[in-house]
Amino acid sequence: MATIYIDASSGSDAAGRGTLDQPYQTLGYAIFSTSTDSVDSTKYLFRASAEAEYDAPTQSATKKAKKDAQGLEKKRQKAAQEEKQLQEKREKRERMLEESKKVIITEDESLPKATKAKIVKLEPLRGQRVRVSGWIHRLRIQQELTFIVLRDGTGYLQAVLTGQLTKTYDAKTLELEAAVELTGTLQVVPEGKTAPGGHELTVDFWRTLGSAPGAEDAFSNRLNEQSDPSIMADLRHLVLRGETASGVLRLRAALLSAFRTTYEAHNVLEVTPPCLVQTSVEGGATLFQLPYYGQEAYLTQSSQLYLETCLPSLGDVFCVQESFRAENSHTRRHLSEYTHLEAELAFITFNDLMSHIEAVICETVDKLLANPIAASIIQQLNPGFKAPARPFKRMAYAEAINWLNEHGIKHEAEDAGGNVIKDEQGNAKMVEHAIGDDIAEAAERQMTDIIGTPIFLYGFPAELKAFYMKKMPREKGATGPIFTESCDLLMPNVGEIVGGSMRIADMEELFEGYKREGIDPKPYYWYTDQRKYGTCEHGGYGLGVERFLAWLANRYTVRECTLYPRWPGRATP
Ligand code: 4AD
Q1: Segment 353-407, tens digit of pLDDT
Q2: What's the whole-number mean pLDDT along residues 81-108?
Q3: How far apart are alpha carbons 499 and 456 in whole angstroms?
Q4: How does residue 283 score in pLDDT terms, banded at 50, 70 and 90?
Q5: Of 102, 117, 138, 414, which has the fewest CB atoms closer than 10 Å, so is most exposed?
Q6: Are residues 480 and 551 in the same domain?
Q7: Is 433 touching ligand 1 by the criterion CB < 6 Å?
Q8: Domain containing 136 — which CATH number?
Q9: What whole-number percentage of the chain has pLDDT above 70?
């Protein structure tokens, strides 16, 4: 007589074999795993724990275990049934796919020749045969009817496949994001129906150019709107295919183009300064260093100093250049690499500078709103957006300090070493603002959001600002901090989007600036030379393109406003 061992404490139904060394865990499973006709001739020995002796189970335990075994058997049968059905389905699909390989479609040579076109250029080709290539953006498959929304980067096109066209191997294996070429007649959609562009392609011939996987690897399984932010970041290359991300990037392109047109109208010339530099602009703390042929070099923080050197050569200049900031800021408005739009203007006053910044921004926004494609993206991403009213509010630094105090907006107190002072519970001590304080990001944003319009905040204390900033004229005998001809443009929801200033034109004053900031003037010889050979009053500014775009397109973070964002710890993809 065969003997099966069951140990309730250390046995295992899944891994056990019913032997003394490898007992099962439950009597039910032991009975289930014995063939039906040998159950009565099998001896079952059970123990509740490793310390107990093996013994025959009680009658009632055996009765209950037989019931459990029946339940397990039912489960097994159901699973086998399901597996069978699945297998049949797989085989059916295999057969169907084999059959589909026999369906060969060819282009009807007697039809008029198709014109190859991008989706954006289709309207004048209505009623004609066209050939369009793109990616499957949306897909709905019905019996002998396949609806496609095709995307080619210039727009979206609705297309319909019918009859034999839906029976080929390519049709049966078509998935989202496959690249295809569709040929057919472009027809205006009937009254009451809508489609992108107002027309639809009735396909008469098509082919897959690059297939995309289905099942677990399908595009919609890798990414959807609920995906975790870190997955979205890793899969940014796929996120870019979506309507929102591509809309933001399309708007970004229109924005840069509109800025360029605006600068052209103001006779400001574009230059392309280097990224690899050996001088800092905004202080050593945020420099990315790299070895450079045995020397030390940095990734540029700002092209300002180079733009200044262009003034006597080219007149007013601007650049669109990547700037790099090695700051450990994980906020929604900081990137480690960002696109910096900077301009520098000669023979101006501080007032001229602020008026120019305002004009460039407003004229650029007007151009975008007059451009149907850009305007429709703005409406889609930021419904109800209106160009800001001019003139922008101007608020002196000292006025802002008063405003913050009147509105009860405090900041964290710091000790002499710059450490936040905390109470016994570990909460930061909050104090009123005073002249000389750096207005922190949080306070600045609160103020901007309450005021709700663009604000030029100007005249910051020299101590808080870079070495190159021109000081405001002061009355003889005046005491207190020295203010500078500097301005930040603050926008609701985003905060600072522009930082600018008049620059020190006087050589002596510049040397004082180097000294105050502890900068060795030697590597700056070329910058100093500007003051030696025909110095002039001049000023300029830098605009963070991603921040501007976040404001314009109402994006939560600047990370959405650049192709492949970089922030602390992230340089992939
Ligand atoms: O205020 P910032 O540091 O000014 C300068 O670099 C000047 N040298 C520019 C000039 O006068 N030519 O930076 C200017 C702008 C900010 O207002 C902000 O919009 C953007 O650059 N910016 C950043 N954007 C994204 N991520 C960061 N880490 C940024 N740091 C500055």
Answers
A1: 999 999 999 999 999 999 999 999 999 999 999 999 999 999 999 999 999 999 9
A2: 95
A3: 10
A4: confident
A5: 102
A6: yes
A7: no
A8: 2.40.50.140
A9: 100
Length of the chain: 573
Q: What is the mean pLDDT of residues 418-444?
A: 90
Single-letter amino acid, residue 133: S
CA gap 31, 494 in Å, rounded: 69
Q: Are residues 470 and 377 in the same domain?
A: yes
- Looking at ligand 1, which residue's alpha carbon is closest to its atom 9? 542
Q: Which domain holds residue 166?
A: 115-217
Residues 205 and 261 in one domain: no
145 & 209 share domain = yes
**How many whole angstroms from 498 Cα to the centroid of ligand 1?**
7
Atom 18 in ligand 1: residue holding the nearest Cα: 544
Mutate to test the pocket of ligand 1, among 338, 353, 445, 491 (most ligand atoms within 8 A of CB): 338
Read off the tokens for 342.
């900077």
Q: What is the pLDDT of residues 286-300, one digit of tens each?
A: 999 999 999 999 999
Please give the pLDDT value at position 416: 83
Q: How many domains does the chain have?
A: 3
Same domain, 500 and 465: yes
Decide if 18 is inside a domain.
Answer: yes
- Cβ-defined contacts of 277-286 (< 8 Å, 24+): 278/523, 279/305, 279/523, 279/524, 279/527, 280/519, 281/305, 281/466, 281/468, 282/325, 282/466, 283/466, 283/517, 285/326, 285/327, 286/325, 286/326, 286/327
Residue 174 sits in the same domain as residue 59: no
> Do 75 and 147 sit in the same domain of this protein?
no
Atom of ligand 1 nearest to the CA of 281: 8
Q: Identify whether 437 is part of a domain.
A: no
Among protein residues, the one whose CA lies closest to atom 29 of ligand 1: 334
- pTM assigned to the model: 0.88
Domain identity same for 287 and 339: yes
The model's confidence at residue 35, banded by pLDDT at 50, 70 and 90, is confident
